[in-house]
Fold this sequence. Notes:
By secondary structure, this protein is of the alpha+beta class.
Amino acid sequence: MKLATRRTYFGDRLCFPELVNGAVVDVQAAYSSQLMAGGVHREDAVARAGRSIPSTLADALVDDPTLSLFRSVYDWSAAAALAGTLDLDCCWSDQRYKIGSPVGRPSTIWGMTANYPRQHVTENDSASGIRPAGMQGFLKAAGAVSGAHDDLIYPSISNRVAPEIELGVVIGRRSRHLTAEAAMASVAGYVLFVDTGARDISELDNNKMDRGKGFDTFGIVGPWFVTADEIGDPHDLGIRWWINKELVQQGSTAEMFNPIPEQLAWLTEALTLFPGDILSTGTPPGVTSIVPGDRIRGEIDGLGAVAFNVVADAASARTADHPNANGAVTTLTFGGSK
């Protein structure tokens, strides 16, 4: 099952994508219709749907980590859409700029570092695949989160910004002291997560990532949340990244050093994770710097695609005098090492 967040005049609404061409199906409205189809009075159906269907994924997972009600509404909606009987009042247009983060603003976003080789490993270049001694990572500001097609704002105080396309693991239940053997039971599903960082800002901050990784729009998520049962093996997903239609990064989650269960066991030795929180698992080799004016597209098998523009911060028009502002791309030599 896939879930998207649609920005509406009612506020954010959880929706089913890909059931109706050019639209997303409002889960709350669809549940109300399902109840009415079963004989419930309209006003009672609307009130019950409002109580039962939260507006955020985190709240939905708190209520039910298995999302059983959502699955029931999805099955009903899919059947109604196929039969042509789904009320169009249940639908919103799927305009890209109206699609927000499918996970809202998680309480915790943890980003893994040094979880992939610096270069794609070959038989003649085994050194590029040297595994670090231990796991590493950082906390990312929740305020950095934005939707899959929102502009990425290039900070006026930076000259070296690099986004990283990553598999994001979404937590389904309160988790602490997980074991590697049991950790995957805490995974609700997955998202495509774009972990962007201002490298020069981190260097100014004594190589601390907090500020450099925390700018607004530096955590693009989406377009959907996909439940774990829809993804056969999260450790075997293709990852692709284009800048101005040039393929600059192509890899697989199979390249990560530490599998997801080990990451979760390591992380929850220290942190309590809550429903809707994200573990972003790192990126394959090929991290490339960007400049204002660039057009970005990224995709991960089974998780959809993000596509967005890079725009200069309104505080400073930097495009004209920015290094590489002619649209050329620069591949950073540290590859997947962050």
